[in-house]
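Predict structure. Chain length: 343.
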Amino acid sequence: MSQNSQKKETTILALTLLITVALGGALWWLVNNGTIDVFNKNPRNAIGKSSGDSFQSVPNVPSGLFSYGGSTTWAPIRGTVDSEIQKVLPQFKLRYTDPTTGAPGTATGIKMLLNNQLMFSQSSRPIKNEEYTLAQQRGFTLREIPVAIDGIAVAVNPKLNIPSLSVAQLKDIYTGKITNWSQVGGTDLPIVAYSRRLSDGGTVEFFGENVLEGEKFGNNVQYIPTTTQALQEVAKNIGGIYYASAPEIVGQCRVKPLPLKAKSGESVPPYKEPFIPLSECPQKRNTLNSQDFQTGAYPITRRLFVVVKQNTTDQQAGEAYANLLLTNHGQELIEKAGYVRLK
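Prediction complete.
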């Protein structure tokens, strides 16, 4: 081989080595920066997959005006998360829509969805079999996408001297079997149990199915239209008791959130310990016991869902909304709104 040929071969080998190193380095950078997933062979910016994704990272967010509605439990999320979505993605216009008749809530939201009055809805309970059936009869399917964890908290008057209740005792109070606080270790005082009506929302439906186990409310129960009014009544009545979504109760200044006994017999509070005395409220407020809600140590927890109409033109909007809530940014804002992040 001539000297010139050797020089050419050496040059070619050197260039090949440099190109290989450069390509390898580029591949390493792409993999480690999340652009390529060598295991899943899919982009890591797929919806809700990355713990560091933002609203801008969610693909297929449509433009237009999108009507949605449903659960009153979701009100803090609408105020905190939805307003931020509007700032970041102004083209994805969200309009909360109340029902023309009846009170707003999970059931009415799903009913409006079935009647094509909404493009997606917010729910504080799973979809019922009859709702799935109605959707199928109308040519589409419903899908529930979980986005947050919530729990049911119990509120009593601050002057009531009772440390906790079991779920069984709570059931007996609301079915009329227990009517005096002395029956559960308290003082001789009539129990005044408050509730919204079963038709008013997903929280009441969830309570009826999971706490009352399908039994009817007792004749002792007094029905109040809203949680705000019910809490006002409990604050005035030493014997009063009420249940609602935990963020609606835990941070209140005029009622006491009550620990509930788990199956182990241990009392688990819905608030983060130590309890902040109500005398220090509103300068300081109790916050949600997120850890025990996430682990299930707190005995009455549930998930919050976005309900999407599949096989319709509305599917994209509903899925985009759910995926925005499942980004790290969305989960942080859900936590800020007082709920427990799902991921």
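Summary: The first strand starts at residue 64 and ends at 70.
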